[in-house]
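Much of our argument rests on the idea that a fold can be written as discrete symbols. In the encoding step, the backbone of a single protein was reduced to a row of integers, each denoting a local shape. We regard such an encoding as a compact summary of how the chain folds. The record that follows shows the chain in one-letter code together with its fold in token form:
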Amino acid sequence: MNEETSSYGINGAALKWIAVITMIIDHIGASTLHYYMIHHGDYTRTTWLIYRTCRGIGRIAFPIFIFLLVEGYTHTKSLSRYLMRLGIFCLVSEIPFDLAFYNRPFYTGNQNIFLTLLIGLAAITGIRKIRDAEGRKPLEYPRQKKQILRKVFAFFLESIIIAIAFFLAHVLHADYDIPGVAAILVAYRFRNLREGSMIAACLTLLFSSTSEIFGLFSLIPIYFYNGTRGRQAKYFFYAFYPVHLLILWGINRLFVGG
């Protein structure tokens, strides 16, 4: 992220905090409040309204994480390390994720958000490498025919990568499933149109759930993003995910009822 861009507005660190806070609110609803409702049989209108409000606010988080993923991909100094970090924290977060949301250490029906981000990042990496390779090859005679064939072949390879990414998201039960990975690819494809790309990504997420319409509110902080990194606590944001899930699980067991 370019530090020379205007300092006015919201930097990358502030965007992360907005995503983290809205994610916490969502997880409080999806984990602790939901657990309380089931354990105590409390399905009153007030409790349900609070639950739905938490989940609605939480829809803001994932589009911001998508935006930051694409920004990170564009500006990272080491793509391999970026992929490795996502992979490591995907594994580290799985047990806390299952405990917080399913009250068991292993549940294969749904995986944590790091898997969705990892698959999406791997897919856009593959697509970018294909396009770079296609652009580096010199055009020979007959120029037009070879150019068409190369573009068709590149399109074929990109389609295979996208199909594999969708397949993995579905069979591995990644969070948001296929629409989650598709939203990442859409955001990357139209990354030069900041607000437009995120509108497209949010609309893509509607294929996951109609409640994702609330994700459009993420456009407000993204609109004010000024292109700077801000003071980053990179590993804190990664580690916070599994830690806060363990805390929620502990609250569920100790205070809500086990």
